[in-house]
Amino acid sequence: MDEQVGPTDEQVETPEEVETETPQMPAQTQERRRDDNTVYVGKKGTMGYVLAVVTQFNNGASAVTVKARGKLISRAVDVVEIVRHRFMPNSKVDNIAISTEELTSEDGSKTKVSSIEIKIQK
User: Fold this and answer.
1) How far apart are CA 41 and CA 10, in angstroms?
2) Nearest Cα residue to 63 out of 4, 3, 2, 119
3) CA angle in degrees (0–180, nearest 5) for 30-119-58
C-alpha cells in the first residue's frame, strides 16, 4: 500500500500563485487617515495612547487630535495631560470640542453618548 500523506507537487501553491486578500480602503480614506493625526482613545492602557500622540509629533505633525467617547473621556484627558506635562512641556491645548453622539444598538434602540476632541499643538 502506497498512501500519500501530504499534497503532491501539483497541489502545493507557490508564493506567486497565492493571492492574499487584504481589504483595501478607498484611497481617499487612506489619505485622510495619513493626514488626520488623530488618536482614538479606547480600552488600552493610558501610556499606549501617550506613545501614539508623541509618535505623531515625532513624525512631523504640528497638531494631534485626541478623541474619546463615554467613560473613556477621562482617559483622553489623562493622555493629553501626560503628554503636556511629561513629554512635551511646550505643547498647548489648542481646542476642546464636546458633543453628544446618538448610537444605534443591534436591537435598534438609540443611546446618546458624550464625546470629546482635544487638539494639541506643538
Assistant:
1) 49
2) 119
3) 65
Domains along the chain with CATH numbers: 36-121 (3.30.110.20)
Which cell is 90 given? 511646550
Per the DSSP assignment, residues forming a β-bridge with 39 are: 66
Looking at the chain, the number of H-run helices and the number of E-run strands are 3, 4
Cell numbers of 88, please? 512635551
Buried/exposed code over 77-100 (b: 16+ C-beta within 10 A; e: otherwise) = bebbebbbeeebeebeeeeeeeee
d(CA 68, CA 98): 10
pLDDT tens profile 2-58 = 555 555 554 444 444 444 344 444 444 444 455 589 999 999 999 999 999 999 999
For residues 75 and 41, the answer to whether their CB atoms sit within 8 Å is yes
Nearest to 67 by CA among 57, 59, 77, 54: 77
CB under 8 Å to 57, separation ≥6 — which residues? 64, 88, 91, 122
Overall size of the chain counted in residues: 122
